[in-house]
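Lecture notes, unit on protein representations.

Consider one protein chain, 147 amino acids long.
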Amino acid sequence: MANNLRKKDDFPTLTDFFPSLLDEDFSLLDKVPSSLTRSNFKADVHETDQKYELKIDLPGFDKENISIDYHHDVLTIQAKRQEEKSKKNDEGQFIKRERSYGSMTRQFYLTNVDEEKAKANYTDGVLTLIMPKLNSENTTKKQISIE
């Protein structure tokens, strides 16, 4: 009976099964869809008697890809991203090209807002919204009598 022992060097290594795991250009987060890595953008909402102030983190978004709508006491902020990465070899041929697209939406219920005086500013990846409130004499409340 022949001896079928194998040397240690004859066995496959981890890099034989998963060569891309150890590439220097490889990142595990590149393989995870962006929708799974971040579920929503972060927001701070501060309310005073005169206004709402919102600070919303939107790093990496272009101002043109951010939309702000206020309708029926609901503030809706939507941000879309379109990103392309490419890598070429010395001859100018693509050896790697990746694209990612996505959007995020967040809504806030804000009552008594003076829509005409609302202001937005986007600087260094932070969207700042100032939403002044209507004066208390401008709001109409109706007393409902009980029959």
